[in-house]
C-alpha cells in the first residue's frame, strides 16, 4: 500500500474539518455490484445501461426495463458492504462536518453505517408511479439466480395503488433532472469542504461530475481513489491508484495514526 498511499493524503484527511466523500459505482464493485462502464464482457454485456436507463426505454418496453431493475435490486439485496464503505462511515464518526454524496442507487453506504448519504441519482428502493410520483410498495418478483444476467427476463411493472399508472424505478435516468434538494446540498458541501475524496467514479456523467470540480475551484484538496485514470485526474491534488476496499481503510488508519502521533 505504501506506493499508492502518500503520507500527504493521510495528513490532509487527518487535519480536515470538513470532508466530502463522493462515490460512484466503483465503490460497490468489490461488493459484487457491477459498474456501468467497466469491462462489458461481464454481467452487463448484453445490457447497454446508457440505453436502458432512460424514460424512452421504459415507455417503449416497460417489462424489459422493470425486469432489469428487479434483477439489479435482487443483486444489491444479496450484496454486503465492504471495508471501504465502513471506512467512510468511520470518517463521518471522526469528522462531524463530513458529508457523503453518492451517485449510486444501492443502499450499501447506509448498511455500512453512513447516516444520511445524499443520493444524487435516486434509489433502487423508492419506486414511484409515472403519473403523479406516488410512492409505491411491491413484492420483488425476480426469482432467478441473481448472480446471472436476466437474459431478457421481462417482468411487468406493478400499477400504482392510488391512480393505476405504471410504477417506475425511483432513479434518475439520462435527460432527467437530479433531485433539486440533493444537488443543492451536494454543491454546498463541495464548495465548503477542505478535503474532497472522490471514489470509484469515471467522472463523465453530468451534472454530478461537476461536483469534484466545484470543490477543487473552491480550494479543497481533491483526493481520488480509483485503479484507473479518469478525466478527474487533472483536478486532483493526489491520485491513489487502487481499489476502494484496499485504499480507504489504509487511508483512514494512516490519517488518524498521523494526527495521534503529533
Ligand atoms: C473502482 C473499482 C474499485 C472499478 N474501487 N474504483 C454536460 C456535458 C455532456 C453531457 C451532459 C452534460 N450535462 C448533462 C449531460 C447529459 C447527461 C450526461 O452526463 N451524459 C454523459 C454520459 C455524456 N446527463 C444527464 O442526462 C443528467 N440529467 C440532466 O443533465 O438533466 C438536465 C435537465 C435539467 C432540468 C430538467 C430536465 C433535465 C442525468 C444523469 C443521470 C445518470 N443516471 C445513471 C443511471 C441511474 C439509474 C441506474 O442505476 O440505472 O447514473 S447513468 C450511470 O452513470 C449512473 C451512475 O450514477 C452514473 C455515473 O457512473 P459512475 O458511478 O461513475 O460509474 P462508471 O461505471 O462510469 O465508473 C466506475 C468507475 O469505478 C471507473 O472509473 C472504474 O475505474 C472505477 N472502479 N472498480 C474503486 N474496486
Verbal overview:
- The protein has 262 residues and is of the alpha/beta class.
- It has a single domain, classed as Rossmann fold (3-Layer(aba) Sandwich).
- The chain contains ten helices and eight strands.
- Helix 1 crosses helix 10.
- It is elongated, with a radius of gyration of 19 Å.
- The model has no long low-confidence stretch (mean pLDDT 91).
- It binds ligand BJW.
Order of helices and strands: HEHHHHHEHEEEHEHEEH
Most strands sheet? 6 strands, parallel
Total discrete domains: 1
The overall strand count is 8
Major beta sheet, strand line-up: 3-2-1-6-7-8
Give me the number of helical elements.
10
Per-chain topology:
Elements: H1 7-15, E1 18-23, H2 26-29, H3 49-52, H4 55-60, H5 62-78, H6 83-94, E2 97-102, H7 108-112, E3 118-119, E4 128-129, E5 167-168, H8 180-192, E6 195-199, H9 210-217, E7 221-225, E8 238-240, H10 244-261
Parallel strand pairs: 1-2, 1-6, 2-3, 6-7, 7-8
Antiparallel strand pairs: 4-5
Helix pairs in contact: 1-10, 6-10, 8-9
The chain binds ligand BJW.
Amino acid at each position: 500500500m505504501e506506493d499508492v498511499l502518500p503520507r500527504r493524503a493521510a495528513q490532509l484527511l487527518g487535519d480536515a474539518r470538513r470532508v466530502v466523500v463522493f462515490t460512484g459505482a466503483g465503490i460497490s464493485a468489490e461488493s459484487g455490484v457491477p459498474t456501468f462502464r467497466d469491462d462489458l464482457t461481464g454481467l452487463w454485456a448484453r445490457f447497454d445501461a446508457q440505453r436502458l436507463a432512460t424514460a424512452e426505454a421504459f415507455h417503449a418496453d416497460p417489462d424489459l426495463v422493470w425486469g432489469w431493475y428487479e434483477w439489479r435490486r435482487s443483486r444489491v439485496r444479496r450484496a454486503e458492504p465492504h471495508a471501504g464503505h465502513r471506512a467512510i462511515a468511520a470518517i463521518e464518526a471522526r469528522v462531524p462536518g463530513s458529508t457523503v454524496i453518492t451517485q449510486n442507487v444501492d443502499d450499501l453506504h447506509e448498511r455500512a453505517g453512513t447516516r444520511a448519504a445524499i443520493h444524487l441519482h435516486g434509489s433502487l428502493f423508492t419506486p414511484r408511479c409515472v403519473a403523479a410520483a406516488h410512492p409505491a410498495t411491491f413484492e420483488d418478483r425476480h426469482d432467478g439466480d441473481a448472480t446471472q444476467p436476466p437474459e431478457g427476463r421481462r417482468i411487468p411493472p406493478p400499477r400504482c395503488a392510488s391512480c393505476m399508472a405504471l410504477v417506475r424505478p425511483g432513479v434518475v435516468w439520462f435527460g432527467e433532472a437530479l433531485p433539486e434538494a440533493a444537488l443543492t446540498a451536494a454543491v454546498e458541501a463541495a464548495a465548503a469542504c477542505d478535503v474532497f475524496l472522490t471514489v470509484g467514479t469515471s467522472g463523465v456523467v453530468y451534472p454530478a461530475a461537476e461536483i469534484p470540480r466545484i470543490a477543487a475551484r473552491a480550494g479543497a484538496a481533491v483526493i481520488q481513489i480509483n485503479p484507473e485514470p479518469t478525466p478527474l485526474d487533472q483536478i486532483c491534488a493526489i491520485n491513489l491508484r487502487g481499489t476502494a476496499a484496499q485504499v480507504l481503510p489504509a487511508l483512514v488508519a494512516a490519517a488518524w495514526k498521523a494526527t495521534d502521533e503529533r
